[in-house]
Amino acid sequence: MSVNNIATIKRITADDLSTLLLSSKAPQVAVIDVRDDDHVGGHIHGSTHVPSSTLDHQVPEIVRKMADKEVVVFHCALSQQRGPAAALRYMHERQRKAKKGEMEGIATAVEETGPAKTASDDKPGEQEIYVLDKGFEGWQQKYGRDKRLTASYTPDFWEE
Predict the structure, then answer these.
(1) Is 39 helix (H, G, I), strand (E, B) or coil?
(2) How many CB atoms are closer than 10 A to CB 33?
(3) How does pLDDT run along the chain (160 residues), one tens digit per residue?
(4) How many Å from the N-terminal Cα to the C-terminal Cα in the chain?
(5) Short-list 106, 127, 116, CA closest to 2
(6) Could you tell me what percentage of the chain is helix, strand and coil, using 3-state DSSP and rounding each to the nearest 5?
(7) How far is residue 22's CA from residue 16's CA, in Å, rounded to a whole number?
């Protein structure tokens, strides 16, 4: 039985995510940006924008599209509410599909016997699911001007 909740979702720092995105593992990493009308001022290069206001009906499709990714990272502006809530919905949908046998090889994240093995164990279908610590606000402070990592960055938007 799974015991996933917002408190148990793992966090990834901007530094760790940037390292992944600049590595040979980048094709196996998906970033899901769930900002709504605050999706301005830039975004993480290669991220998928899924506004949190439309997330509920898109989660099954996102799970299907991200099935081959080793790492999926969710974020909003600060990653305090929308990002973690989106990651939790995603995890629950993956578990639901795995239990129904709809997705071969999917790990159910946490079993009664303890944590599931991670993507680093090289088993197909398993994923590491994270929330970006400090959200896009924290990301842009470090990597906003880095064109390899951030697209459509608008410095004026972030300056006071």
Answers:
(1) coil
(2) 24
(3) 456 777 789 999 999 999 999 999 999 999 999 999 888 889 999 999 999 999 999 999 999 999 999 999 999 999 999 999 999 999 999 999 888 887 664 544 433 323 333 333 444 457 999 999 999 999 999 999 999 999 999 888 877 6
(4) 48
(5) 116
(6) 40, 20, 45
(7) 10
DSSP secondary structure of 94-142: HHHHHHTT-STT---SEETTEEPP-GGG--TT--EEEEETTHHHHHHHH
For strand 71-75 and strand 128-132, is the pairing parallel, antiparallel, or unpaired? parallel
Question: Quick one: tokens of 156?
Answer: 């004026």
Look up the pTM and report it.
Answer: 0.84
Quick count: other Cβ atoms within 10 Å of Cβ 31?
23
